[in-house]
Design brief:
Layout: E1 9-14, E2 20-26, H1 42-51, E3 77-81, E4 85-89, H2 96-107, H3 113-133, H4 155-158, H5 163-176, H6 181-201, H7 228-239, H8 252-265, H9 269-273, E5 280-281, E6 286-290, E7 296-300, H10 303-315, H11 340-353, H12 363-377, H13 382-389, H14 394-397, H15 405-413
Antiparallel strand pairs: 1-2, 3-4, 5-6, 6-7
Helix pairs in contact: 2-3, 3-6, 5-6, 7-8, 8-10, 8-12
Length: 421
């Protein structure tokens, strides 16, 4: 029995850079000590408890390919990230070739937890559509496509897939799911890398039907951002909340530090919640964050950020902090690492208090704001802005080179023919 007291879970501890530091095989008895797992909170422990009832569950070691091949049967993905906790993907509902692709993406390509989840969801949905499209199952409505079981699907079916079948899937998503262009683009990317793996890497199929698959055209929209005056008003509001305005004022110094970092550094939500005190280099005014794809980058801190962090550290709780959150910079009222959802709630509350439309703006819009203000007022080179924001492609950063109405009006007024009446 896999879940006897001999072996239960394989766990890996990570250093501050997300690299494996120590590996353990934990017995069921030792699982009671949640700190050994370096998980975020009790909800993560509940996920593990649920896995007890399912045969052949374990943790896959990040960056350790040999962990896949055990005598205990198929392994489910249960990656542990130093800041984001554990996320499980069940494998028993997938065909073997899909699981092999996920193994490859996890270990060799070192894709992030979220990317693996997206690959699994996108490809499984695509294969379910193929089963419906090829009339391999009897269902009355397209609404039931997601309920189709694909674990018995073989490569013989995959070999029949054509570019037209992929187009049919994208059409189904657009017409039946009303998927937006960005969603279709992501699905397209997942399908493309999946078939590249099957055809080019593993030579399991002769022809790659996605070789000429084009990415759906994305509509170019200017990013929404706060003006300089709105940004100042937001900072003033969070620093000096009115007694009857909103929220818990005991957290105003913490919330002020959060808003200050967003507006000055342009960091992502997950980057902010993942900051550890040890990541902050006060001597050189910089900090290291783990961004998209588990890539580390350095963010330089200006005087406003350093002052905001120091002010918060003076009032940050020093006792009764949950063991796995002792190094976390920002803590919740439960004295554990602050969650993404809590930060989103804080930002919404502060926007409303500042009289700014909280439905129009969000945490990510503060990132847009920081980038736009730095480009517009700081005379920041586009390459420097790319590095600061952690963008892989310069084309992503170029959305911040837009001009606003004021600049357009000024350009018209400066036309040398403007005074020729």
């Amino acid at each position: 029995d896999f879940f006897d007291n001999k072996y239960s879970l394989i766990v890996s501890n990570f250093d501050k850079f997300g690299k494996i530091k120590k590996t353990k095989i934990l017995t069921r008895e030792r699982l009671n000590d949640i700190n050994k797992l370096r998980l975020r909170d009790k909800s993560d422990m509940n996920i593990i408890n649920k896995s007890y009832s399912i045969l052949h569950k374990t943790l896959i070691l990040r960056n350790v390919r040999s962990a896949q091949n055990t005598e205990y049967g198929p392994i489910s993905y249960f990656k542990i990230n130093k800041n984001k906790g554990a996320i499980m993907i069940s494998k028993e509902n997938n065909p073997e070739f899909l699981n092999d692709f996920l193994d490859y993406s996890t270990t060799i390509l070192n894709k992030s937890v979220n990317t693996i989840k997206e690959y699994n969801y996108d490809i499984a949905h695509f294969l379910k559509f193929i089963a419906y499209h090829y009339k391999m199952v009897k269902i009355d409505s397209k609404e039931l496509i997601k309920e189709i079981q694909i674990h018995t699907m073989t490569l013989e079916t995959v070999k029949k897939i054509t570019l037209q079948d992929i187009h049919a899937f994208l059409g189904y998503l657009k017409n039946d799911y009303h998927s937006k262009p960005a969603t279709l683009a992501r699905k397209t990317a997942s399908i493309r890398v999946f078939f590249k793996y099957l055809c080019n890497k593993m030579k399991l199929i002769e022809n790659n039907p996605a070789q000429d698959l084009e990415t759906p055209k994305l509509s170019k929209r200017l990013p929404k951002y706060l003006s300089l005056d709105e940004s100042k008003k937001l900072l003033e509001t969070v620093k000096n909340p009115l007694p009857t305005s909103h929220g818990n004022h005991d957290n105003s110094i913490r919330d002020s530090a959060i808003i200050t970092l967003f507006l000055n550094c342009g960091m992502r939500l997950s980057e902010l919640t993942g900051i550890n005190i040890s990541d902050v280099d006060f001597e050189n005014n910089k900090l290291n964050v783990i961004g998209k794809g588990d890539k580390e980058r350095t963010i330089y801190l200006n005087k406003a950020c350093i002052n905001a962090i120091n002010r918060y550290l003076e009032v940050r709780p020093k006792e009764a902090i949950q063991a796995n959150s002792r190094n976390a910079l920002f803590l919740s009222e439960q004295r554990k690492r602050i969650s993404n959802r809590t930060v989103q709630y804080i930002v919404k509350q502060e926007l409303r208090a500042a009289g700014i439309d909280s439905n129009k703006y969000s945490v990510h819009k503060l990132r847009h704001t920081a980038a736009t203000l730095m480009y517009k007022y700081g005379e920041v080179d586009i390459r420097a802005l790319q590095e600061l924001l952690g963008h892989e492609s310069i084309s992503t950063t170029q959305i911040y080179t837009h001009v606003d109405d004021e600049q357009v009006r000024s350009a018209v007024e400066r036309n040398p023919l403007a005074n020729e009446v």
